[in-house]
Amino acid sequence: METIALPNGRVLEYLLDGPADGPALLVHHGTPGGAVRIPPVFAAAARHGLRTILAGRPGYGASTPRPERGIADVAPDVEILLDALGVDDFLTLGWSGGGPHALACAALLPQRCRGVALLAGVAPHDGQGLDFSAGMCADNVAEFGFAAEGRAALEPLLIQAAPAMATVTAEALTASPSDVFCDADRRAMADGLDSFMIEVASHGVSSGIAGWRDDDLAFVSGWGFELERVTCPVAVWHGTDDLMVPVGHGRWLGDHLTHAEVHVRPGHGHVSLLNESEAILAWLIGAAGAPPERTGSVG
């Protein structure tokens, strides 16, 4: 991992992978998270010759906290990092809580972003016609509920949960309540993604709860941009069995993004969907040159 000093005195932690001269893929991690490799995404990107860039949002790892940040605030940080790395344009991918941040980069850096892939991305909390918590696991319903009440209500919940997050084991993941991980998620973790989930959880609280807290508060606030500003091609990928961010979020986003295709994957969950990274990146690379003419569902 590396860091870059931002003009306002903050530090941003990031990691790089792949050829220095490859097309850039900007990856946005989930919540909690940080600058941790997502194995299926990074492996697929390497096969496609992409240069992968993943920055830890403020408050995660070595990235300086930025209280009261919004979703849109990711764009200026990313722009500084891209400039420093000599990157002119990029593709972007956001998993889970990274989804809104990927959309922010597409909306607010339109001359540079060539395409977006959303994997189990979170939809706006106040999305018209969206039942935000329908089908969502009880833990996430409670977390978003406290976030909607504000920082004072949310912080005690996260402080209480952080020690278990920091020391989570494969056995603890297996023992998670049945409404958190579907069968496909449990199989994916048993096949090797448990080590990734452990690393991302521990890194996500390694510097405290600031990153996690500020992500949650940003999700339930206005995102700071209109979805109509996303004019590049978008692929919305979601599993039907996702219990953490239910498939209704993906369908809602597909209905409200102008140049989107929705890829609903039967039987996939929140974690197992990462194993679709090869197909997702192939779509993203192929679509980047020509936005779809219509919004629709495939697969």
UniProtKB/TrEMBL annotation:
Give one GO term, molecular function aspect.
hydrolase activity
Q: Which InterPro entries match?
A: AB_hydrolase, AB_hydrolase_1, AB_hydrolase_fold
Question: Could you tell me which residue ranges the AB hydrolase-1 domain spans?
Answer: 23-275
Q: Which Gene3D superfamilies does the entry mention?
A: alpha/beta hydrolase
Q: Does the keyword Mitochondrion apply?
A: no
Q: Could you list the residue ranges that cross the membrane?
A: none
Pfam families in the record: Abhydrolase_1
Provide this UniProt record's keywords sorted from A to Z: Hydrolase
User: What's this protein's name?
Assistant: Alpha/beta hydrolase
Query: Per the UniProt entry, what species is this protein from, by scientific name?
Result: Microlunatus ginsengisoli
